[in-house]
Amino acid sequence: MPEPVSFFDSRDDTLLKVHVFVNDINDNAPKFTREVFTGGITTESDFGLEVMKITAVDPDIGENGRLRYYMDGRVQETLSENLDNIRRSPFLVDPVSGIVKLNFDPQKGMKGYFDFKVYVNDTSGRSDRARVFIYLLREDQRVRFILRQSPDEVREQVEYFRDYLGNVTGAIVNVDDFRVHENHDGTVDKTKTDLYLHLVNRDDNSVLEVKEVLAIIDKNVEYLDHLFKELNVLDTQRAELVTAGVKEDNLLFLWLVGVIVFLTLLLVLTVALCLSQRARYSRQLKAATATAFGECSHDNGLNRSSTVPNTNIHSVEGSNPIWMSGFDNDWYKDEDSLRYQQFLHQSEGNDSLDDNAVDTSLSPRVDRDMPYITSGNVPNPLSR
């Protein structure tokens, strides 16, 4: 038996080089890498967005390993709101690459998730099937993980990351986006990557809020410690993907609240001023109609008739101007001056009674107060 030869020597006539070609037969069926593919879109996503990529493998080579992807049946809409206007299939599957693209324009107020089946086949008709879930979420339902790795390095380990996180939290983990980390001052740090993802409850297929996700991560931080150290996870926080439309809505809401508060305060101030002025004028009116010694028991003098001759015009209590605070009694103030004038008349030999030396200008009573008394009718006691 000849000994085995490690290399072929063309100069050796005892050796012959033989080429053997093995033809591959299509004896293997394609197989999806996952039984269930999950992903997510937001209400701000654009038409034609590449949502995800479904992949399958086939051990056959050449033409026997050429695969085609298709959508199996129609898309089911579950827990949906405001999705009735979608007249065509919400998603399209590229038959060559397996990329699932968005085929409608999401709008605010839309909710729910989409469920459909896909299948893959080879040239011989061998096939496999899988299921796809695509969730419609809001921008503020995303969580951001900051990793000290480049986006290419994170992309190579993203499947391991999502599977590990899903096993610990018990939720469906969907990766939404990779981005180079941006610092607070606006500079780009290429050594860090922002990984955006969202979590879905396995029981009811509802998207978990960020507050719930962060609480679950904090609760299982001991089990996630190995993952975070292995992938250099620096921080976990709420995603800051706030669009300009949301900012404008918040600004409009703040302006509306401010205007309402301002108008409310203005109304309260106006009512307070009106009540204050009303109370003030009421006090002034009461002071103007009140008498000095108390109010009358019946009509308070509002129905008084005009002055009748031979009657006392000051018959109402408090109506005498002598005792009213607003009346200036000048004849009391000039009492000393009056006495001095009387003294001068008496010193000259004149009798004040004969000459009627009383200054009538100092008397508070005038002729209109005594229309039936005249100086000629007054008897002179000295004429007798």
Report the helical percentage: 25-40%
Going by CATH, the architecture of the domain at 31-137 would be: Sandwich
User: CATH H level of the domain at 31-137: which superfamily?
Assistant: Cadherins
What is the SS-derived class?
alpha+beta
Q: What is the CA-based Rg, rounded?
A: 54 Å
The helix/strand order is EEEEEEEEEEHEEHHEHHHH
Predict the CATH topology of the domain at 31-137.
Answer: Immunoglobulin-like
Order of strands side by side in the largest beta sheet? 2-9-8-5
Quaternary organisation: single chain
Q: Total number of helical segments?
A: 7
Tally the beta strands: 13
Give the CA-CA distance, first to last residue: 198 Å
User: Mind telling me the CATH class of the domain at 31-137?
Assistant: Mainly Beta
Low-confidence stretches: 365-375
Report the average pLDDT across residues: 80
Largest sheet: 4 strands, mixed
Strand content: 15-25%
Any overview of this molecule?
With 384 residues, the protein is an alpha+beta fold. Among the domains are: 31-137, Cadherins (Immunoglobulin-like); 139-238, Alpha-Beta Plaits. The protein is 28% helix and 24% strand. The protein is built from seven helices and 13 strands. A four-stranded mixed β-sheet has the order 2-9-8-5, with no helix packed on it. A four-stranded antiparallel β-sheet has the order 11-12-10-13.
Brief summary of the model shown:
This protein has seven helices and 13 strands. It is an alpha+beta fold and 384 residues long.
